[in-house]
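Appendix B, example 12.
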Amino acid sequence: MKTLRGMGLAALVGVWLFGQALAGETTGQDRAEAAGKGLVGSAAPQMIVKTIDGDTIDLGALYGKKAVYLKFWATWCVPCREQMPHFEHTYETAGPDLAVIAVNAGFNDSVEEIRKYRRALGITMPIVLNDGRLGAAFNLRVTPQHIVIGRDGRIQYVGHLADARLDAALAAARQPGIPEATASARAPAAKPAIDLGDRLPAQSVKTLDGKPFVFRMAAMPRPTVLVFLSPWCESYLATTRPAISASCRRTREQVGQLAQDQRVRWIGIASGLWASAEDLRKYRDDYKIGIPLTLDESGALFRAFRVADVPTVLIADAHGKLIRRMVPDDGESLSKAIENL
């Protein structure tokens, strides 16, 4: 536990800045509780997940036998790091009636980064990398996000802080549940991903201005560029992931230079993790973003296009066929990719 202690003033200041810079008047706890409104009291989904070490965990098999504590986190998240001593202590003292599972949010993270983080902090609990299914099932909106499931298989608590409310929820969850059938729900069915070579979906989204953006129209006179982004990538990740922050800045600047190009259609798709419509509007106004923006609050578009990192740029030709995926470490500039269309 020594490696998890002594985070010091810098970490505490980082936590405060994270809440102030990202949330403004809305705290992380507010966001987590809002995400939990449709979850608390409902049956937890039956899902089978794998740890980064290859072990299988059947969540449905745990319901009715023990309480389950899932915590979504990220290696770049300051409050997640600050809360790790509490999290690890909970795992070490859990006993036979509580399963503790760390769920990496799967956003701008990799198994390599997670393993390095685990070694540095001395984490011993099982770690699962979210592939989008867990985040969707539990309305992931912030990091950290705590999910406490009672022994009856029902979700009892959703929160953000490691405080007395979380401790009380963990204690209550261990109490015996209803003696009859254990509550459970099937996980939502995964939809086929849209990959290179596939056509854009025949659907539309509403932009910040309230206008519809149709991904695939009957006639596609121009190529389409989809820019997957996060409004806090440049600012927050400047200290925890400077290379990614710089990539977000470069992509934003290139999009700004190319936004007037009438040969292509543009849409910016913002992650709903730590972001609201208000946050996205502020980002648009502060940086004078000139392309239409939409907030993917539930993460459905990120999952559909298999996007787990920002910035990611997808390019579809004039027939709506996806022909190019550009990720943060891609060497080619966006302007050159557009020129080659």
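The chain is about 35% helix and 20% strand. Residues 157 and 169 are 6 Å apart (CA to CA).
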